[in-house]
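Notebook, student rotation project (T.W.).
Task set for the rotation: take a protein with a known small-molecule partner, predict the structure of the complex, and write up what can be learned from the model alone. Partner molecule chosen: magnesium ion. Sequence and SMILES entered below by T.W., checked by me.
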Amino acid sequence: MIKVEALTKRYGAFTAVDDVSFTAAAGRVTGFLGPNGAGKSTTMRIMVGLTPASSGSAAISGRRYADLPNPGLEVGVLLDASAQHAGRTGREILAIAAHTMGLPKARVGEMLERVSLTDNEANRRVRNYSLGMRQRLGIATALIGDPEVLILDEPANGLDPAGIRWMRDLLRDYANRGGTVLLSSHLLHEIEVIADDIVVIGNGRIVAQGTKTELLQAAGTHVRSADPDYLARALAVSGVTVTRSGDGALRTDADPALVGKIALDAGVALTELRAADGAGLEEMFLELTADTQREGVAA
Amino acid sequence: MTAVAIEKPTTTTRIAPKRIPTTRVVSVELRKMFDTRSGFWLMASIGILAVLATAAVILWAPDDELKYSTYATAFGFPMAVLLPMIAILSVTSEWSQRSGLTSFTLIPHRGRVISAKAIAAVLIGVASMLVAFAIGAVGNLVGTAITGTNLTWDITFNDFWLIILANVLGMAVGFMLGVLIRNSPGAIVAYFVYSLVLPTAFAILAELQGWFRDLQPWVDFNYAQSALFNGMPSGEQWANLGVAGAIWLVVPLTVGLILVLRSEVK
Ligand SMILES: Nc1ncnc2c1ncn2[C@@H]1O[C@H](COP(=O)(O)OP(=O)(O)OP(=O)(O)O)[C@@H](O)[C@H]1O
Ligand SMILES: [Mg+2]
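Predicted structure of the complex:
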């Protein structure tokens, strides 16, 4: 379990992380979502002691990271897959990690196999690695100590579709076996597919957090009928405000049961009625971070 | 994609991990000095240059100069440059190559990592000097055998340790600059300024300003170190070394360590 309490990081007058508190629970995948520069990486660096916090604290299984006697065996960390000595081979980088943690040499081969790096690739210098290969090596380094907690900053970055799928399954499995997984991303789809809990951050502040189901519900209802204008009017009469998507569908914050009842009373035949998912979280993400993200509100 | 079974992240029988022993941290740091191509060749060049320096003495030194101290002087030059570079790079590569992100995460106590590097650097320094002395000794035997001159072992046990000490101090300077600057090219340039420009500046100052001449042994670290190459230093020379070393080594190293402990690793 990871517990972050009132974490704040200031760089001079600029507050990169502003009073952030959340918990990543054991047995669950927690997605840390936010636009570029929101403070995700900074928060994660503070968790593992690479960046000193201005105030607040982060604890892993109830202890400060610096108090862990052999952190690699308890927390798997991947912050930046490119941050490796370019002149070492992938195998050597894993071997150093295993050596530091006091693990048998055999673990290195096992991990290489687990992240699908071939022998040939493992013996190449990291300067000649592709982005995805670096990412796999970084994941192998995080997993080699068989930790209970994983902290991964944009782990899907650079992976091919099969690699993304593989990683998703791996993290799901990890959480299902009782592990704690915290992963950051600015890719909404990635988080939506894999996370149980979601923490949304914008401009250093947490703007929403909860289980995925809760957050998706908060995102409202997606409804469609042959006559969207009539349906929109009927909903408006009942006090339900709607927004129109370009393709004739309507979206509202009200829940699907209410929308269905209003449509029935108004005698409108619906062609589609469901909780706004997929695009829902995306809209929520854009909305929540509207005043913080760079492009302004997407129309 | 993955056929290998995933082990359980959580088990009830998990044994509490023990603190990483310092000997292991040191052995990891030693390993990191050799496991890149550049690191390996830097280490190999110690042996190679000691052999070349020794061969040069055999080939070109006049016969009456074929004594052990000539060999020691010859391999002393490459050692005085190479060893500080090794010390510098062992520290700065963590930042310049960004491997510190992993190193300081696996061992979240930067003081431990840095002191392990210092121990590793001293071990390498002493071992390199022993290797160089051994190569020089072989050279001395071969040289006199070829020319038929008398074997001269004119380096006492004291000289031997003082020369090693001087080289370890040179490494310490490199190490200090690495910790302070944390950037490979920057620290290397700083080392040459420190070891070439600074002594020259002090020498000129002593030449021009009479009052500085008495002060120089106390504030010129390089000057104070030269006492190590002329037999056993006197008590006052040791004191010179201590004071100048405090100014030029201990103080900046302390500042560097404080900065390292406080800085952000990115
Ligand atoms: N040393 C520093 N000095 C000043 N500002 C900094 C420093 N380090 C980070 N920042 C700022 O803190 C903010 C948060 O950065 P961070 O890297 O945590 O963002 P992020 O959420 O990880 O973004 P991304 O999705 O692009 O990776 C950014 O505005 C960044 O410029
Ligand atoms: Mg980031």
